[in-house]
Amino acid sequence: MSSLTEKDRPIVQLLLNTGTCPRCILRFCCVGSQVLYRHPYKDLMKDLQEFLKNNQEKEDTICLDGVDPPCKRIRLEHTEKGPGDLNHNGEFQQIPSVNDGNAAMESSAGKVCNVCLGILQEFCEADFVKKVCQKVNSADYQFTSFVFSVSLPPQLSVRERAAWLGVKQEMRNLGFPLAKDDIVQLKEAYKWIIHPQLSEELGVPADGKSLFEVSLVFAHPETDEECHFLATACPDCFRPAKNKQSVFTRMAVIKALEKIKEEDFLKHFPCPPSQPKNLCDALEIQCNNGAVFVAGRYNKYSRNLPQTPWIIDGERKLESSVEELISEHLVAEFKADSFNFSSSGREDVDVRTLGNGRPFAIELVNPHRIHFTAEEMKRLQQAINNSSDKIQVRDLQLVTRSAIGRMKEGEEEKTKTYSALIWTDRAIQREDIAFLDDTKELKLDQKTPLRVLHRRPLAVRCRIIHTMRSEYIDEHHFRLHLKTQAGTYIKEFVHGDFGRTKPNIGSLLNSTADILELDVESVDVDWPPTLDN
Fold first, then answer.
1. In 29-115, alpha helices (H)
2. Which of 359, 389, 411 is at the close of a domain?
3. Do 429 and 511 contact (CB within 8 A), yes or no?
4. Peptide bond into 83 cis (omega under 30)
5. What is the pLDDT of residue 72?
6. What does the alpha-carbon distance between residue 61 and residue 390 come to, in Å, rounded to a whole number?
7. Which of 198, 202, 432, 434 could form a disulfide with 428 if both were Cys (CB 3.0 to 4.6 A apart)?
8. Quick one: CA dihedral 268, 269, 275, 281, positive or negative?
9. What is the model's pTM?
């Protein structure tokens, strides 16, 4: 085992004797060769045995032939008791003699590792990897790469700390410093072993930037029992949390380990760690695809259709919505778990959206299917349009998450064009409304409308009516075309909202005015890109 050197021998001897697996021993010897961890478990155990045997023969030769250099075995057995050299009974456990190599091998062989609790043993074998891949394949996801994540039982941090303290003491006695950061992390070593096997079995590469995640969640029945002393020593680190079955979360345990004094730790937990009673359980094998985003523009032709589900006090008011009419097709085709709908502004339930439509985007959460050709997107758009006469969509396309930001930027910065059918109580003639056509850049002060005050904060917003064009109909009706700043409340501009919008059409005409119909004629946001549909 060329990666190990003479200074690693006491670490190998110590950990083997206390029931540590070969791969964890490599971690504590700071071996960074990924390939070495992938060697079969039995081969690694044999290699460690040979390493100890070969070094023992060299040592014996040095002890017999050399007079001046003292025997290294003497240095190994010599300990200087310091303040940190305590186990849970107040002492460090006796470091075994290097002559106990065979006993150490028997101690580690066939037992659950006292550090990783079997993670780098049972769960690195081909049979387990095949089980993971079968679960992934049965979930029926589309993916071209994967990222692998693993969640470990919290007490692994406790056991690793205990093992490190033992190794640190041994190395200190030999004059070799060992920093905890030098040890290869368990998750890292596990991924070194698992990645190539998963890649080969799934037929795709591992990629840290992949949107498709395969995750393993490990648990252990003795977590609370082994971490309980930390709650006594550092109670402020463990607070009950919502949706958590135990207070001993990974982050809480790590926080407590950073806080607890070394001598207090050693008084409550064996060092090196004792042999575990149970192997870890692979609690869950989960798959998740990163969200896919679909954008387009919609037209709404009904005056009895809300943009999103209309629910008041838990009771649904109307049977459908723009959001649902579009998303139900997308969720089904992308095989997504759920969705999030957003748009550039919104219209009231009784307002139509005409012209080139309103930009929208839908986030499809955990989609099983992610690859669609342009032709397939056209067919999906047609299916949506054929399903209802209340809405139509256009320019349906896949977009990136960052691109959606352009829609939200335009929501505040761009202009919108409306057509309003207005009634006045006072009889009017054409010349009475002609001045509206000449009114430009009219500034409004709009206090939050009463109808939306339950969901929006009370404020006075300055908005601008850029242009107006009137169409006389009869003595009590006319149509007004307006180009306004985004965010302008048109209904309130017409009737005044009990004086909360100033000026308003009623005040300008010196008459009571109300709005009978309102249409959005254009939303001037140049997004998403227009397609040749």
1. 34-37, 41-65, 72-77, 101-108
2. 411
3. no
4. no
5. 30
6. 92
7. 432
8. positive
9. 0.81
